[in-house]
Amino acid sequence: MKSYLRRPKRLKAMRLHHLLPALALAANSFAGTIVLEGHYQGKNLFIQNPFSEAGVGFCVFEVTVNDQIATDEINSSAFELDLGNFGLKVGDAVVVKVRHKDGCTPVILNPEVLKPKSTFDIVKQEVSSDGTYRWTTANETGELPFIVEQKRWNKWVKVGEVMGVGRPGEHKYEFKVTPHYGENYFRVKQTDLTRKARFSEAVTFTDPSVQPVTWGPVKPKEEIVFSANTLYEIYDQYGNIVKRGYANKIDITTLKKDLYYLNYDNKMGETFLKR
After folding, report:
1. For the segment 21-64, what is each residue's pLDDT rounded down to a tens digit?
2. What CATH class is the domain 215-274?
3. CATH architecture label of 121-206
4. Is there a contact between 46 and 112 (Cβ–Cβ < 8 Å)?
């Protein structure tokens, strides 16, 4: 009688022992997660979904968008993730998690649709008398920095950066600029994943209080001194920039003996010889 009562306990223990490897294998079969982050641009994602390593069923077993489980049909070799089902507005942050089985890897066919694109329009821009550059935009769809540029020495030079809001509607920005003597030109630009920059029209500004800057190699072997703070660039004879900055003097002790070209204020191409 006692022997009969013990037998079921041994059988139960044996069954559990045999199930443990299977349970561990099942847990490990759901081992991968692809995380894709960006901002909603009004377009859907397409995912290529191979068979699982075991050859039964497909690789992806769950997809979430901002931690909400997607209800799209994922049991196919490729499927579309409809981001419009999640109440997203253009410019909203998106985190997509594609959970898949071990031994196989799904492929996001168009991840670029979550990358910000430059679509801004300039509604208004001006430089006020105190040197504050202000611009108002509309139709932004992605968070991208606005690069503030000033035209100096026959080229556009970056002088600042302001992060864009990246959402529809009008947005106002401002940046304090440093004008040179005479008429100044300013603009903003954005560059997105296409690497093609988009620019605003140039806005002009003249500050009557700014006087022309002069310079002189007071100590030819050590420094160049300006009459006021100014942006500057020093080029060697091969067109390489060897120094640049904003100051009222330049330390030239580290420059080798040679002929150099100096851009400063609104002047360019002036030469000096480091002896």
Report:
1. 333 334 434 579 999 999 898 899 999 999 998 888 999 999 99
2. mainly beta
3. Sandwich (2.60)
4. no
